[in-house]
Amino acid sequence: MTETTWTSRRCMVFMSDFGRVDGAVSAMYAVADAVSPEIRLYDLTHEIPQFDIWSASYRLMQAMTYWAPGTVFVCVVDPGVGSSRKSIAVLTDSGHLIVTPDNGTITHIARTVGITEIREIEGDKNRLKGSQKSYTFQGRDVYAYTGALLASGKESFEDVGPVLENYVKLDVIAPEIHGKKLFGAIDILDTRYGSLWTNIPESFLEEAGIPVGSRFRVTISHEGLTVYGYELAYCKSFSEVAKGESLVYVNSLLNLAVAVNKGDFASLYRIGTGEGWKIAFELI
Amino acid sequence: MTETTWTSRRCMVFMSDFGRVDGAVSAMYAVADAVSPEIRLYDLTHEIPQFDIWSASYRLMQAMTYWAPGTVFVCVVDPGVGSSRKSIAVLTDSGHLIVTPDNGTITHIARTVGITEIREIEGDKNRLKGSQKSYTFQGRDVYAYTGALLASGKESFEDVGPVLENYVKLDVIAPEIHGKKLFGAIDILDTRYGSLWTNIPESFLEEAGIPVGSRFRVTISHEGLTVYGYELAYCKSFSEVAKGESLVYVNSLLNLAVAVNKGDFASLYRIGTGEGWKIAFELI
Amino acid sequence: MTETTWTSRRCMVFMSDFGRVDGAVSAMYAVADAVSPEIRLYDLTHEIPQFDIWSASYRLMQAMTYWAPGTVFVCVVDPGVGSSRKSIAVLTDSGHLIVTPDNGTITHIARTVGITEIREIEGDKNRLKGSQKSYTFQGRDVYAYTGALLASGKESFEDVGPVLENYVKLDVIAPEIHGKKLFGAIDILDTRYGSLWTNIPESFLEEAGIPVGSRFRVTISHEGLTVYGYELAYCKSFSEVAKGESLVYVNSLLNLAVAVNKGDFASLYRIGTGEGWKIAFELI
User: Fold this and answer.
1) Which residues of B fall within a CB distance of 8 Å from C252?
2) Chain C: residue whose CA lies nearest to A18
3) pLDDT category, A265, cuts 50, 70, 90?
């Protein structure tokens, strides 16, 4: 075990599937602010689809690295609350801390950023005083509380609990390149605009020597059945095609994406995401 | 009149039925930040159903006590804006301040936490400068402004206005225990998951000597007509029953609640909340 | 060119059409907090209808002036991202800074508050380090980053780039008064309540000597076709009419507005906003 030298920058970011309709998110903020009024409190999102750990894992990857090292993330999409699933604090190779149930939330981060060390959250010291009778809201009683202890510097990462060697990971399909053909998964939708975000990195295009302005035959399949197959231009920005026209572009995470200019690609062609959905780009 | 010794911790929490679609909440934040940039500004929720004072009162109870004493709450669900209803600042027995129209918003807090003193908000000193011609947005012009004066320490609680002896309360049905039978109201839905949250405290279970693992006959009636009657297990957590199965549990506020594991109980059985809805738990 | 003496108060306010479902807004916050943890970060709204620059321009006017001078606004409703549209930093006559694409977002502010100076945002110094390959998320890479440089005092307004004399403005119809007849546009809906907010200022009522309690014949037309024509009372507040009854009032921005007490005027009478919609108030 190497000695970690993580330093908090007194900044916490919350993610959950709680929505903002009731007082749940506010109660998490309350616990953190009561631990220390010196911590800056922000949101990633609270609109993760209910119990969708995969989306939580993806959204964490999408935003985490833009926050400066030393930021603490509290991520609570927790279908197993009250079960025997563990609670963990995760130090990433980028110097961020993630406080979360051990249920797969760190899958994408583990792949793209890397994990330095995981510790199991243990004991009454990491639980809001007086909350011992509550079993259903660990987001407030354990995760926000422990996150605030860490963010405020009142507890060190080492003091959270013992090192954990194994942790829960979701299945993620790796992207592939074969000559001028690129294959991958549809990771997620850019919800507001219905664009498809794949897990195929822009570096594949460089590797294959494919410049902006090229055209691809784009094929999308679901459970092995082809549901979309058209030729699209690879553009630098949406405005290079007419309104209503589709395009291939590199998204803000530097992965290949497919969209309709001022339209909703996923709705238009009834495309979904996650397991069973595959996409291929063939240079023409 | 006892002398109050309330001390601000420079933290304000906003609740309203404004939503976040337009700039109304932002205007309240703006007024508070302009009074003093030293105040931390947070939300409870702005998604209270429109004009639903009862929900506002319940949500305030749900989250308020997790915030540290000295926090100021600005609660604006105000169907009577512009009418003769009073504006009040309320010191609770827990050391929190609530700035709100006098329309019932403090009903649940009065019952569960207790009220130390109420003062009527009066005069031009408690109104944003230059807002005298605006009658329809007191959330911004009066409540956010007065709340920020209090939270920043620029105005003491005593200086807000005269003590008010009477205030508006909503009708709330008290829970009852008769041997192994518990009766109460369905206070609210856990919106995201459709769980029923009753006003029957866990202490009734202790009083009646009913342990986790017991089974209840749960009966729900609306306007005296029984609309639900099944036997359910009293569980410590959702994961003790199969997906789609119903259960009784103690919620995060330590009251009895009813849910479907990974489902929406209220939608499934068309259960509502508030006046006219009653629930009974009979040990079997 | 006069020398500007703008001073930051270390407060940033974000507006966009991104929603809060994914991590986009969080990434903008992340960039700003990484530039300086000393800046207070707040929202105007992120629920501007997609690509609706006109709504963005209106909402900015609605909330901006309630924030203290020295506040920096980052406004990103940007259908032309990646095109040749410019990026600008705008100093208003009220002492606020707006960082935005040059696409019409400052239309209403220019008319009601006034523009002191506009500078074009240029160069790699105003772009997040390492983001040169990303073309589709300038909200994060350029606007949040530049806004944070300005809000933190790390960059002066003059250093952003050269002065720009011309900028993009949307078409806005001016209100008119002819004796006891007032004409104008329906600027926007008060979304939550469905009230119509016109651009006719209360000062017209004073000019025409029309007191509260008067009655108007209100006529609404769309593309020249009359779609509504009824007599309504001019009230000080909603509670002066019965539930379900319509009224004319002065809204929180001191313009004439039309509403149904505890109802939704726009839905009830199918009224829209923006170009093609006109409203007239004739004293009776």
Assistant:
1) 27, 134, 136-137, 140-141
2) C21
3) very high
Q: Are A186 and A198 in contact (CB under 8 A)?
A: yes
Residue C13: list chain B partners with CB under 8 A: 26, 30
Protein fold of C11-159: Rossmann fold (3.40.50)
Residue A179, pLDDT above cutoff 60: yes
Q: List the chains bordering chain B where 3 or more Cβ pairs fall under 8 Å.
A: A, C
Same CATH topology for A11-159 and A176-283: the answer is: no
Q: pLDDT tens, B119-177?
A: 999 878 899 988 876 767 899 999 999 999 999 999 999 999 999 999 999 877 889 99
| Alpha-carbon gap: A193 to the closest alpha carbon of chain C (Å) | 8
Residue C4 has pLDDT above 70, yes or no: no
- Annotate C132-164 with DSSP letters as a single string: TT--S-HIIIIIIHHHHHHHHTSS-GGGG--B-
pLDDT tens profile B215-247 = 999 999 998 899 999 999 999 988 899 999 999
User: Sign of the C-alpha dihedral, residues A19, A21, A22, A27?
Assistant: positive
Q: Which residues of C touch B79 (CB under 8 A)?
A: 262
C interface with B, Cβ–Cβ below 8 Å: 9-11, 13, 40, 42-47, 59-60, 62-63, 66-68, 71, 190-193, 202, 236-240, 249-252, 254, 262
Residue of B250, B252, B255 to mutate, testing the A interface (most A Cβ within 10 Å of its Cβ): B252
Give the separation between CA C44 and CA A187, rounded to whole angstroms.
30
pLDDT in tens, A213-261: 999 999 999 988 999 999 999 999 888 999 999 999 998 888 999 999 9
C35, C6 in Cβ contact below 8 A? no
Q: Looking at residues B70-74, what average pLDDT do you find?
A: 98
For the segment B179-218, what is each residue's pLDDT rounded down to a tens digit?
999 999 998 888 777 899 999 999 999 999 999 999 999 9
> What is the SS3 assignment for B224?
coil
Alpha-carbon torsion, ordered B125, B126, B130, B136, to 10 deg:
-150
Which residues on A lie below 8 Å from C81 (Cβ)? 237-239
Q: What percent of chain A has pLDDT over 90?
A: 76
Q: Which stretch of DSSP H or E encloses residue B228?
A: strand B225-233
pLDDT confidence band for B252 (50 / 70 / 90):
confident
Count how many pairs of residues, chain A against chain C, have C-beta atoms within 8 Å.
96
Residues of chain C positioned with their CB less than 8 A from the CB of B26: 13, 42-45, 63, 66
User: pTM of this prediction?
Assistant: 0.86
The Cα of A29 is separated from the nearest Cα of chain B by a number of Å equal to: 8
- For chain C, what are the domain ranges? 11-159, 176-283
Q: What residues in B contact C112, CB-CB < 8 Å?
A: none
**What is the CATH superfamily name and number for domain A176-283?**
Bacterial fluorinating enzyme like (2.40.30.90)
CA distance B72 to B146: 10
Q: Is C283 helix (H, G, I), strand (E, B) or coil?
A: strand
The ipTM, to two decimals, is 0.84
C170: nearest Cα among C69, C47, C79 = C79
pLDDT at C1 over 50: no
Q: What's the rounded mean pLDDT across residues C234-239? A: 90
